[in-house]
Amino acid sequence: MNRPTRTVVVVGGGTAGWITANRIAAEHPGGGHDSLRVVLVESPDIPTIGVGEGTWPSMRSTLQSLGLSEDEMIRATDASFKQGTRFFGWAGNGDATDTYCHPFSLPLEYANLNPARYWLEQGRGTPFADFVTPQARVIAEGLAPKQLATPEYAFTLNYGYHLDAGKFAALLHGHAAGQLGVRYVAGNVRQVESHPDGDIAALALDTGERIEGDLFVDCTGQRALLIGEHYGEPFHSVRGLLFNDRAIAVQVPHAASGDAIASVTRATAQPAGWIWDIGLGSRRGLGHVYSSAHTDEEAAQRALRRYVERTSPGIDPDSLNTRTIAFEPGYRQAPWISNSVAVGLSAGFVEPLEASALALIEQSASIIAGQLPRDRQLMDVVARRFNAKMGYHWERIIEFLKLHYATSRRDDSEYWLDNRATDSCPEGLREKLTLWRQQPPWHDDAPRLDELFPSASYQYVLYGMGFKPCHTGADTAPYARLRERADEVFHGVLEQGARMARALPSNRELLCAIAQRGPGQA
To answer: Hey, what's the torsion of the CAs at 332, 337, 341, 346, to 10 degrees?
Structure first.
């Protein structure tokens, strides 16, 4: 039967469930007799995992599309501004120079000038990010991406957020139920009822309630209640490419209320993984991501305690509560089956590096809301397109994350040596690295409009890691024609950075101003 789509049931809360429910309800407002209904069913017994507290700049447009105030979000979620990621100890230099930045802003005039050609030819004395964008200096000085008077969501430099995942889910819950008409149901799913054709017809809850729907969104996390348990869609592991499968998370208080808040995620390499360090208004969120095949939990805990001791004077690491999260890196190749689509951890997860998990949730929710099939016949068409797009995104995410490891020169542990082994590198990335020895990445390396990572991101990581090509491309005709303009643009970066450093407040100063001003004062 070609059933109309009148009720969407989101199964599971957390960030994935509430972003999806909000996005669908915002794009399909109710009110009429035949209007779309959105229901979210959440177990009262399962806490939010909240792996990763960093977002991409895309979160700004997501929040705007929901009608949420940026100031309200920052106050409610203890958020801070994030302008990218700074890496420590990844390249293998073995000294204080082993650090680089992956900022969110594109290099200046990136549409027409490939900055890598000019940097490789004449700028190697300056770190790549510092050479191509003033954001690198702003990040280094702990400054905010905009001024106090800049309107909500507007910016001087591109930015996302660091936030408390649990508080973020609570904010989205209140907005969906209070402003967008999403019906909230607390209960555990006891049975999935099916139509004769295999579609899901309803969910039977332990409360005795039966929730019927036409489209079901599986946001049940690693349990994958619908896509995994019910439909049996296999999980495609990528542990052979990305080794990390554990994360030890801890919350560390600021030593003083006025402590500086970094406007980047700090990622510090370890012998068998890396440590994230995220600054929020009231605390820092830390976590050691590691490979259980290369170390054990006791050693990983010791490494995390040493990091706390080094970066948090006055804080006793033994007084902090840690929690260990196990995960299998991988994804489901067909996240949309019949009338059920998986979003978030139920669809897959690789690791928190570069905060790709939240970005993929945003992407999935946007597609579902924007292409919501009005009937069952259209659903199969949308599902095929969705599965193809998500498959492409997973492949690109895996390649991009592996780039951080495959280009390292660290040789202090089997973990880093194994990460450089040819058989642990995706074929697509091996081809790209071969090509990039001849020519630097640019638009052809990220050709789609919906790419998660622009080619500039590859440049930031590649040259931050010290990748040395065989050829710079400086003898080509396009380089010669544009060299004068490039000299002008990139020699102006330092001047722009100095101007911004004088004009922008610190990250904490801007957050304090937002906390003090009331609604409507932005």
So the answer is: -30
Q: Residues 480-488: what's their mean pLDDT?
A: 84
CB of 64 within 8 A of CB of 218? no
pLDDT grade for 20, boundaries at 50, 70 and 90: very high
CA–CA dist 433, 427 (Å, integer): 10
Number of Cα atoms under 13 Å in the Cβ half of residue 388: 6
Rounded to 5 degrees, what are φ and ψ at 254?
Answer: -65, 145
d(CA 218, CA 172): 17
Structure tokens that stand for 369 in this block: 């809301």
- Are 357 and 19 spatial neighbours (Cβ–Cβ below 8 Å)? no
Q: Which residues pair with 189 in a beta bridge?
A: 205
Contacts of 131 (CB under 8 A, 6+ apart): 115, 119, 123, 490, 493
Q: Which of 35-49, 145-159, 313-327, 490-504 has the lowest mean pLDDT?
A: 35-49
Helix (H) or strand (E) holding 192: strand 189-194
User: What whole-number distance in Å separates Cα of residue 85 and Cα of residue 66?
Assistant: 27
Q: Hey, is 249 helix, strand or coil?
A: strand
Structure tokens at 112: 């027409």
